[in-house]
Amino acid sequence: MQSTVAGPCWGRPAIVPKSTSFTHKYIKKDASGTVTWESGDNRSYTTGSGTGYSVSDIWK
Question: CB of 59 within 8 A of CB of 26?
Answer without folding.
Answer: yes
